[in-house]
Amino acid sequence: MEIKIRLLENEDLHEYWKSGFENPDKDMFYYTGTTNYPSKDEIKKFIENSIIDEERRHFLICNKEDNILGEVVLMDIDNEYRSCSFRIALFNKENFNKGIGFKATKEVLKFAFRDLNLHRVELEVFDYNPRAKSMYEKCGFKEEGIKRDALFINNEFHDVYIMAILDYEFKE
């Protein structure tokens, strides 16, 4: 599937809410460790804050018709240490296993290393999401450690893998 990424804008509120949060895909919430369901007003404030946050670049993943499929975010951008954190979510399980997350991740890593001149991008992935962990490894992320029983969701503790990629490890 052909995709594009673009920065989130205030004008995206309605489509962003509709595609990801009005009738949320429970699998997406589970795989991202999300336990609360935000209101439209909370999403509006979130968008407003994301846009002005100098330590964040919030991209939407869109198809060629500009429909929102998900999001990919660089956050906690630290220019001094040239590092940031990364997260991604596809809003509907119908879009899983189609290469969308892989393509979006590669595009945002290109932006992180080329445009922001970062050295390190790190993420966390949960032990019950081996599909995502495998995709991150395919993109070049390496496992650096495990936070044991660090997530409590659905009345169970889960391990959290810490992964990162360095600028010289990134291959376009």
From TrEMBL:
Q: Report which superkingdom the organism of origin falls in.
A: Bacteria
Pfam families named among the record's database cross-references = Acetyltransf_3 (PF13302)
Q: What protein is this chain from?
A: GNAT family N-acetyltransferase
Q: Where are the transmembrane segments?
A: none
Under PANTHER family, the record lists: GNAT-FAMILY ACETYLTRANSFERASE, SPERMIDINE N(1)-ACETYLTRANSFERASE
Q: What is the lineage of its organism?
A: Bacteria, Bacillati, Bacillota, Clostridia, Eubacteriales
Give all residue intervals belonging to the N-acetyltransferase domain. Answer: 3-168
PROSITE patterns reported in the protein's UniProt record: GNAT (PS51186)
